[in-house]
Specification:
CATH class of the largest domain: Mainly Alpha
Number of strands: 0
Largest sheet: none
Helix content: over 70%
CATH architecture of the largest domain: Orthogonal Bundle
CATH superfamily of the largest domain: Winged helix-like DNA-binding domain superfamily/Winged helix DNA-binding domain
Structural class: mainly alpha
Number of domains: 2
């Protein structure tokens, strides 16, 4: 469960991080991506451990609020899911024109790499 929350917060930060304050972005980076403790972040930022906890919670809530309003992560995940299904279908359909199928698969692989 904790891994799922961590992954979700990191993905939300990728989408909406620039909308947060620099202090919120820094705290989220240190906590979620660098695995720093609240005490380590507090020492680094010159605030209390409770201050770091509050800063992280406010930042997390802001990310969740942005996602509820804009749904960018949801749309991204849905698009990726659809592309994966198309990729699977194309892999199964190898029949009529091998070159066209191979070209389509190459394009899908490039799209997959991009997303």
């Amino acid at each position: 469960m904790m891994i799922e929350k961590t992954e979700k917060i990191i993905m939300l930060k990728d989408f909406y991080g620039p909308l947060l304050t620099q202090k919120q972005q820094d705290a989220l980076n240190l906590y979620y991506e660098n695995d720093w403790s609240l005490s380590e972040i507090a020492d680094s930022m010159g605030i209390s451990r409770q201050g770091v906890y509050d800063l992280l919670r406010r930042a997390e809530q802001a990310l969740i609020d942005y996602e509820q309003r804009l749904c960018l992560l949801e749309r991204f995940s849905l698009t990726r899911e659809h592309l994966e299904k198309v990729f699977i279908l194309l892999n199964e359909v190898k029949s009529v024109d091998e070159q066209k199928i191979d070209d389509a698969l190459m394009i899908l692989r490039e799209i997959d790499d991009l997303i």
